[in-house]
Write a structure and sequence with these properties.
Layout lengths: L2 E4 L6 H11 L6 E4 L10 H10 L3 E3 L3 H10 L7 H10 L3 H8 L5 E3 L4 E3 L14 H5 L2 H10 L14 E3 L11 E3 L3 E3 L9 E7 L3 E6 L4 H13 L3 H35 L2 H10 L1 H17 L4 H4 L1
Parallel strand pairs: 1-2, 2-3, 5-6, 6-8
Antiparallel strand pairs: 1-9, 4-5, 7-8, 9-10
Helix pairs in contact: 3-5, 4-9, 7-11, 9-11
């Protein structure tokens, strides 16, 4: 039996089916998603139903599933993508939450360790912070304040680590660091690609996304919101703040991509040591965290 590990699907059901066909899986091969199977794409309910009904499929807890569970409990405000997905699920949303909250934060296989977000070096798996493994902004802030180098450069285990969460390169290609850390999020919901990896061979399989689904979903939601008074109230009171949270996430993703590319340049790393880049990065992370939690006002953020 093989395992097929898939990066962030984000509601892109058609691409998932194309990827599975291209992978040529046997009946007993296992399908494991790295989390973030919902939100931003057009078919979150169908994605969740697939993982509920397929006997050989399971998913990790991603930061988007975590946001759904926590916002449903009233612990955080939902971002725009959760507001839209909740409308897509309709009356089945409580059952969707019940299923999402069963997702594990990590899966350890014979050939690799799987988490959605990040990993803290030299900390046993059972002692890892949920916010680090799942990839929340607070988890990323903790890592950037604690370590001067990117977390994946510090990963020392002999067992390869496979993650999703960040489209590190923004080129539709997976991120591979020293054949030890593999990042399989390749931006499918933004028009990139959907990428999987067959274990134990570590074979990459990828299909091109058909379009920028997230842009289309947002435009359609905004158009529908103008047609009904109740939808407009949701937009101004709840989704408006959610849209700023989505913007903060997008800024964070771009920051991580640029940081990854700069770290590959020896001249930048020498300059970073001289200029104490850790402090610079901490200032950026602190500012972004304040923006995401609403500590920075909308006017100040513009």
């Amino acid at each position: 039996m093989r395992q097929f590990i898939i990066g962030d699907i984000h509601g892109c059901f058609v691409e998932l089916q194309e990827l599975l066909d291209k992978a040529g899986l046997a009946e007993d091969d296992e399908i494991i998603a790295l989390g973030d199977i919902v939100d931003r794409g057009p078919d979150s309910p169908r994605l969740l139903q697939f993982f509920q009904s397929h006997p050989q499929a399971r998913s990790l807890m991603g930061n988007h599933e975590r946001k759904h569970v926590h916002s449903f409990r009233g612990q955080i405000a939902p971002a725009l993508s959760q507001v839209i997905s909740r409308e897509q699920f309709g009356e089945t949303y409580p059952r969707a939450i019940e299923f999402m909250q069963t997702f594990p934060r990590a899966i350890e296989l014979n050939d690799a360790l799987l988490v959605h977000g990040f990993f803290e070096s030299d900390v046993p798996l059972e002692q890892q912070r949920d916010t680090v493994l799942i990839g929340t902004l607070s988890g990323e802030k903790y890592l950037s304040e604690t370590y001067a180098r990117p977390w994946y450069e510090l990963y020392r285990s002999d067992k390869p680590l496979i993650v999703g969460h960040r489209d590190f390169l923004g080129t539709g290609e997976p991120f591979i660091y020293c054949d030890r850390v593999y990042g399989l999020d390749t931006g499918c919901c933004h028009g990139g690609a959907l990428t999987g990896m067959l274990l134990p061979d570590f074979k990459i399989v990828s299909v091109q996304s058909r379009k920028d689904y997230w842009g289309e979903v947002k435009r359609q939601y905004q158009a529908n919101s103008r047609d009904t008074k109740s939808a407009k109230q949701v937009t101004t009171n709840q989704a408006d703040f959610g849209e700023f949270k989505e913007l903060a996430d997008a800024i964070q993703e771009l920051h991580e991509r640029i940081w990854t590319q700069l770290n590959a340049e020896p001249s930048f790393m020498r300059c970073l040591r001289v200029c104490r880049g850790k402090s610079t990065r901490r200032i950026f992370s602190n500012s972004l965290a304040k923006f995401n939690t609403g500590s920075i006002s909308r006017d100040n953020a513009n």
